Amino acid sequence: MRHRLIGLAAGLVLLAGPAAAQVRLLEAGIICPRISTGELVEAPGTEAGHIRRIEEGLGFDLAARTVPTMDNLSFGFRTALKDGAPATDVTIVVTHPPMGPRGVTREEWPDTLFPGQTNLNLFTFELDYEKVPGPWTFAVEVAGRPVVSVPFEVTREGARGPVEAACFQFMS
Predict the structure, then answer these.
(1) Residues 25-65: pLDDT tens digits?
(2) How many domains does the chain have?
(3) How far apart are the first and last CA of the chain?
(4) Where is the signal peptide (predicted)?
């Protein structure tokens, strides 16, 4: 289930152009398993048809890009506008190997970035069909052009050493 919250690591791609000058990557990584709560918001461009607005204040527990398919594990990125940039309409895009009954490979939802605020976008493994190993990418698009892109590699749950070490207190 996709998550969005209003509110640098190796492997990121920042793309050039006027729109790219407005958006910056603040951080990316993994958030230890937690049960997600928050309002469901319609997002027809996603496999589930909605995203969840989650509470403010979540931080990344691990700045890693290798993500095991653990229940309730979240991963994604935090972005913001560069100083002086006006509010900007964007599309958040997550691409991944085929998922769900329709074999969806691209999920997207509209968003607006506001000056002085950060924007956290996550994917949380809540359902078994979402646990698709392979390359995943989180991106911000402006007017259909990617301006920030962050790759992740999702692995089977067995490859969870660094995540387990970082998240030990949250593991059951």
Answers:
(1) 999 999 998 877 778 888 888 888 878 887 667 889 999 99
(2) 1
(3) 21
(4) 1-21
